[in-house]
Write a structure and sequence with these properties.
The protein has helices at residues 15-30, 58-71, 120-135, 164-177; strands at residues 2-10, 37-43, 48-55, 82-92, 107-115, 140-148, 154-161, 194-204. With 211 residues, the protein is an alpha+beta fold. The longest helix is centred in the first third of the chain and has 16 residues, at 15-30. It is globular. The relative contact order is 0.22.
Amino acid sequence: MIYEIRTYDLKPRSQPEVEKRFGEAYEKRQRLSAPAAFWHTDIGPLDQLVHVWPYQDLAQRDRVQVEAEKAKVWPPDIGEFVVRMRSDIMIPFPCSPELKPGKMGPCFEMCTYTYVSGHLPTIMRVWEAALPGRLKLGPLCGIWYSELGGNLYNFIHIWGYPTLDERNGILDQARASGIWPPSSKAGDGGAYTLLAQENKIMAPASFSPLQ
């Protein structure tokens, strides 16, 4: 399983119209393959759309994109609003759940961490060991590392919350108890180094399978 994350940076105040056009094209596009989630940013980098597409492999992704373009069902006509677009292919951590339709929000946090080359195996071990404690406080949407795209040596983790206040309370509780975030210092899983961290708060489109 792979996940393609498509991120659109839009011109200011164009997000509602762009999301509307995606929604109009959505029904025909999902007949070829359904998205996992479709979000717009609320806090962090504004005027962004983020949508996630699951595929069995790159061959399926390529085949579906060719079919969508041939049938002229996707992408919608939004070129006048787009400043830039990025596509990243992500691979799930072994401990990551599958991203499925359902209700986990409507407040979603996507955290993107950049690590030192060669440290990913250690990160996987440490995070897998710490994850059961964190899951007692709230559900994980997914944790994936970058394989192709403009942001290598990155991994992301996405969490759903009922409200932003609930998110803040859970993080305060996790830090106070010492169960999260996973330690980067040497321990049973080893040590690793993070070079950068960023996050954004997102809300789902009305047609997103994940709400």
